[in-house]
Q: What sequence folds into this?
């Protein structure tokens, strides 16, 4: 590339050339020609595509200015003026070869210098405008990238530019955003739910999973019990999320409470506790009637506020996994804490941090409106309809291949094989995932050894390592309008727009609420002994219309369209909420009824491994107000 010649330098060289003595006019003409050539070649690369009519006219005056990439007005007009001077001296229009020396009058030299200075000044003004416009365009593009091109609404304007000879031409003006950069940076894209809820817990909470406090009688709860620490008139809970052995609750103010197991900081706060000394009698027994059973750690068993979010943070969406917790703000930012696990133990929170003790911002994620967390992986849905996945990817639950030697790369949120800008909903099971696109199709990927993805693979049916490696359409759901999906370890369920509940996957523990003998033989996969193992195609649960379902590891808690709670599946730890008389395996949907829940309209449910949560509208509350 030839050396760059500035406009001012070009003007100085031309003026100096005309001011030389007659003896050096041949050298002067050569200098002028060199400036013209360098100027044209340089501006051909650097100049914007937009042309000005005055420049086009200047180009017509000489064959030298034939490049389609227009130079600046100063250089081009200098070229035109110089070409005229050279033509008078040499009688040639093209100054590509040095002209013969000829005397030039002082008047001509003065006129040429004055004209050159005027054009240079005009060109300097144009250059300042162009530079300013370029910087503003670059800033606008940066804002567009930051906001996903969705927050900017741009309009095209035209501006009239005066040419060097007084002629007007029209060129595109800089794009202007209707929304300021500061407003865009803090714009809200989601909001906190307004309906305050009663929260009910049941199941086994030997490790503080129930969040009912440290009392010994809060360890095993066989029927739903109202959580007195999360009353609507005191805390005002509007959403809950259950992980493997911990829980999160979102208040109407956008604050997050946590409880449960905290050995890997899934609670996002410190819970170290030294129990008080017990009085022991002469016979070696304490004065407690608990048969030596210790109370729970009050800092873990009692829902407490996470106080380490930045001031002013408003959380609108929460999700919990095994030892990982995620929260989304009203502006689409994502915070996380805890850690991800894999088959070898702790995988890590990110590439540099093994366990994250308090909420920390995940800076690469923006405009997130929904998250779903499996056992050890996360899906994040953006406002634009794109999905990011991160965490443990050993079972292809991230929708992309994660090589064992570089498995920490899975901790980096990335997009994968889903259609871009088309996803409206995501859901996760323990080791598999789902997404619903705008056209209503359901996509699944991840571990599939029990058909939990809803995709039947006859060649690998029942094999422990059977996976769906990339997002694949679930053909058995294409005729339904799915509005919600939940999944456990080896089974999945979906609610349709019409209230049908579709289930598929493992059924040998009552997980599906269906009698295998009533199902089509070709849809039931059996083991070598002939025992039914799983349902390969989605089938509807009969007789009851449902509006919501929450899947635990091997059981389910569902809400009917009438606001009643039903449960089925494995209930050996009282996680089905049906009381001490209930069987360990509940084979069909059974209504949950007791004094605490009587007359309460249930709207939400969630479940972990050995405990469950129900959320209902308090009878004295309407739309979140007393």
A:
């Amino acid at each position: 590339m030839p050396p760059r010649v500035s406009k001012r330098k070009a003007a100085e060289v031309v003026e100096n050339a005309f001011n030389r003595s007659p003896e050096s006019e041949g050298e002067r003409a050569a200098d002028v020609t060199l400036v013209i050539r360098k100027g044209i070649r340089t501006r051909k690369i650097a100049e914007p595509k937009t042309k000005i009519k005055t420049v086009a006219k200047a180009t017509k005056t000489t064959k030298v200015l034939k490049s389609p990439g227009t130079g600046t007005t100063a250089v081009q007009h200098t070229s035109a003026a110089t070409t005229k001077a050279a033509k008078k001296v040499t009688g040639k229009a093209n100054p590509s070869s040095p002209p013969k020396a000829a005397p030039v009058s002082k008047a001509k030299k003065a006129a040429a210098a004055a004209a050159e200075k005027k054009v240079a000044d005009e060109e300097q003004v144009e250059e300042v405008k162009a530079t300013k416009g370029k910087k503003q365009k670059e800033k606008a593009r940066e804002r567009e990238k930051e906001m996903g091109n969705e927050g900017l609404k741009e309009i095209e304007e035209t501006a009239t530019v005066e040419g060097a000879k007084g002629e007007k031409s029209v060129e595109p003006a800089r794009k202007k955003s209707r929304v300021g950069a500061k407003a865009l940076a803090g714009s809200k894209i989601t909001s906190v739910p307004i309906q305050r809820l009663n929260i009910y817990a049941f199941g086994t909470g030997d490790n503080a999973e129930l969040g009912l406090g440290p009392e010994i009688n809060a360890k095993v709860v066989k029927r739903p019990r109202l959580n007195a620490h999360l009353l609507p008139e005191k805390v005002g809970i509007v959403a809950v999320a259950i992980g493997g052995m911990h829980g999160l609750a979102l208040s109407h103010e956008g604050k997050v409470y946590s409880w449960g197991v905290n050995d890997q900081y899934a609670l996002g706060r410190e819970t170290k506790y030294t129990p008080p000394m017990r009085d022991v009698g002469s016979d070696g027994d304490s004065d407690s009637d608990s048969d030596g059973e210790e109370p729970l750690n009050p800092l873990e068993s009692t829902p407490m506020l996470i106080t380490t979010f930045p001031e002013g943070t408003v959380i609108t969406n929460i999700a919990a996994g095994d030892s990982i917790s995620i929260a989304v703000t009203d502006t689409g930012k994502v915070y996380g804490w805890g850690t991800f696990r894999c088959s070898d133990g702790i995988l890590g929170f990110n590439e540099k941090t093994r366990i994250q003790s308090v909420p920390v911002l995940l800076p690469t994620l923006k405009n997130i409106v929904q998250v779903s967390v499996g056992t050890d992986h996360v899906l994040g849905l953006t406002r634009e309809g794109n999905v990011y996945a991160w965490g443990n990817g050993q079972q292809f639950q991230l929708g992309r291949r994660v090589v064992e030697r570089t498995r920490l790369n899975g901790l980096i949120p990335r997009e994968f094989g889903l259609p871009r800008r088309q996803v409206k909903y995501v859901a996760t099971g323990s080791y598999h995932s789902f997404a619903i696109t705008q056209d209503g199709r359901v996509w699944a990927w991840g571990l599939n050894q029990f058909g939990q993805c809803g995709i039947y693979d006859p060649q690998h049916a029942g094999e422990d390592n059977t996976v769906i490696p990339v997002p694949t359409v679930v053909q058995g759901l294409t005729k339904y309008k799915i509005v919600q999906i939940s999944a456990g370890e080896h089974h999945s369920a979906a609610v349709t727009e019409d209230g049908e509940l579709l289930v598929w996957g493992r059924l040998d523990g009552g997980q599906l609420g269906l009698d295998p003998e009533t199902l089509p033989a070709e849809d039931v996969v059996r083991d070598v002994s002939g025992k039914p193992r799983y349902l390969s195609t989605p089938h509807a649960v009969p007789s009851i219309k449902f509006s919501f379902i929450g899947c635990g590891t091997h059981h389910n808690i569902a809400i009917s369209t009438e606001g009643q709670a039903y449960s089925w599946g494995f209930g050996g730890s009282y996680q089905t909420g049906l009381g001490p008389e209930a069987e360990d395996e509940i084979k069909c949907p059974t209504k949950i009824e007791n004094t605490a829940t009587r007359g309460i309209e249930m709207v939400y449910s969630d479940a972990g491994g050995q405990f469950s949560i129900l959320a209902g509208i308090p009878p004295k509350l309407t739309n979140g107000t007393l």
Observations:
- The longest helix spans residues 106-146.
- The helical segments are 7-19, 25-46, 53-60, 73-90, 106-146, 181-185, 298-301.
- The chain has two domains: 7-141, 198-271+295-617.
- DSSP finds seven helices and 34 strands in the chain.
